[in-house]
Specification:
The chain has 455 residues and is an alpha/beta fold. Strands 8, 10, 11, 13, 14, 15 and 16 form a seven-stranded mixed beta sheet that branches. A hairpin with a 5-residue loop joins strand 2 and strand 3. About 15% of the residues have low confidence.
C-alpha cells in the first residue's frame, strides 16, 4: 500500500509539472498573441492533457527480462498476498481529503447555480429583448449565464447597451459552457494550483474576446470603459461570465492597443514539440516482455512472523495464508499431492522429443472451495500446460480457508518436474505414460516429479 501511496504522490507531482510547462508555454507564446478561440481551446485542452499524460504508459523500448520471484513455504504451495494489508489507513485518509476537496468545490458550484436560479425567478424579465435579460433588485455585477443576461436595476439605461453587447458576445461564443467545464476540472483537480491559474486565464480570454466584439461594433473606448467602471460592485458568480471580470490594466490595454500577432501558425504549432517532450518524460515506458522468463529456484519466502499473523480479507482479496488453510477432501495438502500424482502422466509428445524440465503452476481455492484462476507461471511445453490445467480444472471441491470464522480465497503454487530416466537396468519398458512421485527439492520444498521411463 505504501507503494500505492508513492504512485499517487508521483502522479500528482507529474500532473503539476505538466500543468506548469503548458501554462508557461501559453504565457510566452499564446497569451494575447493568437486568436482568442485558439487560446480558449488550448487552456481547456492543456488542463485535460496535464491530467492524462502522466497516466499514459506508451511502450517504446525493450526492457531487460526480469526473473519472477516465487515464494513457496515448505510443505505447502503458496504465494504472495495479492492485496496489501498495511497502510490502508493512510491511503484512506488521503482519499478522504481529496473527496472532501471535490465535494466542497462542487458544493460552491451548486450554491452559485442555485443563486442564479433564484435571481431568474425573482428578477424582472425584460420582454422584447434578445437575448433574455433579467434585472434584479439585488446589487450585482452584470453577468451572463448561458442564454440570459443578469444586471441590477440600478444600471442606467445609457449603460445598458454596452453591457448587453458585451454579454451577448459571451452568449454567442458559448463561453458559459467553457466556464462550467473548467469549473468541473478545477473541482476534480483542486489540489493543482495551475488549474486555478488556467481558469483565471480562460476568464481573461473571454473578456478580451467580448471587449473586442463590442469595440468592433463601433462603441467609443472611453464610454465603454466608463460603463465597466460603473459595474464594479455587487455579487458576481465565478461560474458565470461577469462584465467586470478580469478588470486589470492589461484588459484596458487590450482595448486601446491594436494587436499585431506575428507568426500565429508557428506559435500554435510550437505546442507539438512541447507535448512530445512531456510524453517522452512522463508516458514512455519499456515494453513488457511477453516471452517466458526463467523462474529461479523456489525458496521459502514467507517469514514465520507473517505466517502466524492472520490477515483481514478484503472483498476480493486473495491470501497466501489463512488461520485455517483450505483442505482437500477433508484432508491436508499431502492428500491433494497424492490425488494429483494419480492423475498426471508424461505427455507422449514430450517423451518422444526427450523434453524434460520444471514447470510452475498457480491456482486459487476460492471461498466456495472451488479450484479457480489456474495460471502457468513457468511453461515447459504446451502439452504439459494443457494436461496440468485440465487435471486441476477437474479437482474435487475443497474445504475453503477461514479467517475469523469467514471463508477466504487462498492462492497456491505447485512445482512439477518432468524427467525421463533409463529404465533398462530395472527392466522398465518404453512408455509414454509415466510414474509420479513427490520429493524434496534441494531447497527443501516439496515438488511433484513426473517420470517417464525409457529402455
Amino acid at each position: 500500500m505504501l507503494e500505492g501511496m508513492k504512485d499517487l504522490m508521483i502522479y500528482m507531482l507529474e500532473t503539476m509539472a505538466c500543468s506548469a510547462v503548458l501554462m508557461l508555454f501559453y504565457g510566452f507564446l499564446l497569451d494575447r498573441k493568437v486568436a482568442f478561440a485558439t487560446c480558449r481551446i488550448y487552456l481547456l485542452a492543456a488542463t485535460v492533457a496535464a491530467a492524462v499524460i502522466p497516466l499514459l504508459r506508451i511502450p517504446v523500448w525493450h526492457a531487460e527480462p526480469m526473473a519472477l520471484a516465487v515464494g513457496v513455504t515448505a510443505g505447502e504451495f503458496s504465494s504472495a498476498v495479492v492485496a496489501d494489508g498495511g497502510g490502508i489507513g493512510m491511503r484512506g485518509a488521503v482519499l478522504a481529503v481529496y473527496a472532501v476537496g471535490v465535494a466542497l468545490s462542487l458544493a460552491v458550484m451548486a450554491a452559485q447555480l442555485y443563486r442564479i436560479g433564484a435571481m431568474a425567478r425573482s428578477g424582472e424579465v425584460l420582454r422584447g429583448h434578445a437575448p433574455r435579460i433579467v434585472r434584479t433588485a439585488e446589487r450585482i455585477g452584470s453577468f451572463s449565464f448561458f442564454g440570459t443576461i443578469y444586471m441590477s436595476r440600478d444600471i442606467a439605461e445609457a449603460d445598458m447597451a454596452a453591457i448587453v453587447a458585451h454579454e451577448s458576445s459571451h452568449i454567442r461564443h458559448r463561453h458559459s459552457v467553457e466556464k462550467v467545464v473548467m469549473q468541473l476540472l478545477r473541482a476534480l483537480m483542486w489540489w493543482n494550483p495551475f488549474v486555478w491559474i488556467a481558469q483565471h486565464r480562460l476568464s481573461e480570454v473571454h473578456e478580451y474576446e467580448a471587449d473586442a466584439d463590442v469595440l468592433g461594433e463601433g462603441y467609443d473606448v472611453n464610454d465603454y470603459i466608463a460603463s465597466i467602471l460603473k459595474s464594479l460592485l455587487g455579487y458576481s458568480p465565478d461560474i458565470a461570465n461577469s462584465f467586470r471580470d478580469s478588470l486589470t490594466k492589461k484588459r484596458f490595454k487590450m482595448m486601446i492597443t491594436k494587436r499585431k500577432s506575428r507568426y500565429v501558425l508557428l506559435r500554435t504549432l510550437a505546442v507539438l514539440p512541447v507535448l512530445a517532450a512531456l510524453l517522452c518524460t512522463f508516458s514512455f515506458t519499456a515494453k513488457a516482455e511477453q516471452t517466458e522468463v526463467p523462474v529461479p529456484r523456489i525458496v521459502a519466502a514467507v517469514p514465520a512472523a507473517e505466517t502466524t499473523q492472520p490477515q483481514e480479507p478484503q472483498k476480493k482479496e486473495v491470501l497466501m495464508r489463512a488461520e485455517v488453510m483450505p483442505k482437500f477432501n477433508g484432508g491436508n495438502i499431502q492428500d491433494f499431492r497424492m490425488w494429483m500424482m494419480s492423475q498426471i502422466h508424461y505427455p507422449k509428445s514430450m517423451y518422444d522429443g526427450n523434453i524434460q524440465g520444471k514447470m510452475l503452476v498457480e491456482f486459487v481455492i476460492n471461498r466456495e472451495g472451488k479450484l479457480t484462476d489456474i495460471r502457468i507461471i513457468k511453461e515447459l511445453h504446451k502439452d504439459a500446460s494443457k494436461l496440468v490445467a485440465d487435471i486441476l480444472s477437474k479437482s474435487p471441491l475443497w474445504t475453503p480457508g477461514m479467517n475469523d470464522g469467514k471463508a477466504v480465497s487462498v492462492k497456491f503454487m505447485m512445482p512439477l518436474d518432468f524427467s525421463i530416466f533409463d529404465g533398462s537396468a530395472s527392466g522398465g519398458k518404453v512408455a509414454a505414460a509415466a510414474n509420479s512421485e513427490s520429493r524434496k527439492s534441494p531447497e527443501g520444498v516439496d515438488e511433484i516429479v513426473v517420470v517417464g521411463y525409457g529402455k
